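Title: Prediction job returns without error message
Component: structure pipeline
Severity: low
Priority: P3
Assignee: unassigned

Description:
Job completed but the reporter wants confirmation the result is attached to the right record. Sequence as submitted:
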Amino acid sequence: EGYGFGPMAYDNWMRAIKAGSGASHGNWWNGTVWGECRKMLSRYFDEITARLPRGAGSELARKYAEIARLLVEVSDRQRPAGDQIERLCAAKTLEEEAVELLESCVSAFSAS
């Protein structure tokens, strides 16, 4: 209880910032690590673009690169809480869109 993944993790993170942890080590750590993970995922989709349905790889790479940028910005301890939450909301939306696109890629592979 109290933990989550996917959209729930973003919601938990936003609640923690609202409770005052935006300048904490944990916030910095999450933003740094999650940002690095999304950056590497972006690179991965760049590498496998040719194997995915038309345009999906490039779109996923773009979305995850933007998510990475937003999360690194959230990790800035000097950034106001409102700005951190705004960036987390944008990252959450992009991540949800990326997951939907990934699901469509899986469906395309399953159909072939």
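Comment from assignee: result matches the submitted record. The two ends are 40 Å apart (CA to CA).
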